[in-house]
Amino acid sequence: MFTEAYYSLPHNARRFIYAILHRKHFMQMQNRRTTETDAGYSFEPFDKNQCIFIHIPKAAGVSVCRSLFHNLAGGHTTIERYQIVYTKEEFDRYFKFTFVRNPWSRLFSAYNFLKKGGMNDADREWAEANLKSFTSFDDFVKRWLSASNIQTYIHFTPQYKFLCLPKRNEIQVDFLGFFENIEQDFYYVSKKLSINENISIKHENKTEQNREQVDYKEFYTDESRDIVSEVYKKDISLFGYNFDNSSLETQLKKRCT
């Protein structure tokens, strides 16, 4: 765990220190710039396209990666870690983008995703150990959701933690896409990267209970809605969300200023 003094150092100084203290992991990350893991993760598309995509869990990241890069790219790597992977010169030059999602909707999606087994053995094991006792989503929110518990599994980690350096509030990306505006924002990204402008996003890894669109709002009570407001208040404040997404037009206008 690094100190606040460490994060006040210049980018390349932090990268150098990390490479010395964690040489094995540093080299593993560098190797991922040229090779793909068995699970399909690789930083190679980022060097190829001069970009960095920060994949926040349950915000359409798998669909974005598969559509743009044809693999899972960097996985759930934080902006802090990407500043270790890349030099300051590379980091500043690459187009950095992400997609965020309404915290109430994202939480509901993450809960159902894990209840159904998630994506791998780790997800299934975590769900079996932590979600089995809850009778419903509302019960889960009321009895489990807290500022400390959401730090225990990546699918519940606040979104700002992927985009801001520790102890900082500045979002370190060039383009903040919204899940709620995914088609238009994906088109902008593909055009920015000079990828075929006719490309459309392939919706993968969806967790709806059936083919009909599930309205997350129907599964909240006033109490559970307020709990999410408190637990994810920094995400809500930074990205401008409200419960029913009526804030989207304001969010898009603010992004353009």
Explain briefly what this protein structure is:
The protein is mainly α and 257 residues long. The chain is built from 15 helices and three strands.
Write the layout of secondary structure elements.
Blueprint: H1 4-7, H2 11-21, H3 23-31, H4 44-49, E1 51-54, H5 61-69, H6 79-85, H7 88-93, E2 95-100, H8 103-115, H9 121-130, H10 137-144, H11 160-163, E3 175-178, H12 182-192, H13 222-231, H14 233-239, H15 248-255
Parallel strand pairs: 1-2, 2-3
Helix pairs in contact: 2-3
Contiguous low-pLDDT stretches (5 residues minimum) are: 208-212
CATH top-level class: Alpha Beta
- Count of alpha/pi helices: 15
Largest sheet: 3 strands, parallel
Cα-to-Cα separation, first versus last residue: 36 Å
Multimeric organization: single chain
Tell me the series of helices and strands, N- to C-terminal. Answer: HHHHEHHHEHHHHEHHHH
Query: What portion of residues is helical?
Result: 40-55%
Give the tally of structural domains.
1
CATH architecture: 3-Layer(aba) Sandwich
* Spatial extent as radius of gyration: 18 Å
Strand order, sheet with most strands: 1-2-3
Report the CATH topology name. Rossmann fold
Strand content: 5-15%
Label the overall shape. Answer: globular
Question: Any overview of this molecule?
Answer:
This protein has 257 residues and is mainly alpha-helical. It has a single domain, classed as 3-Layer(aba) Sandwich (Rossmann fold), CATH 3.40.50. Helix content is 48%, strand content 5%. The chain is built from 15 helices and 3 strands. It has a 3-stranded parallel beta sheet with strand order 1-2-3. α2 packs across α3. The longest helix has 13 residues. The two termini are 36 Å apart. 29% of the residues are buried.
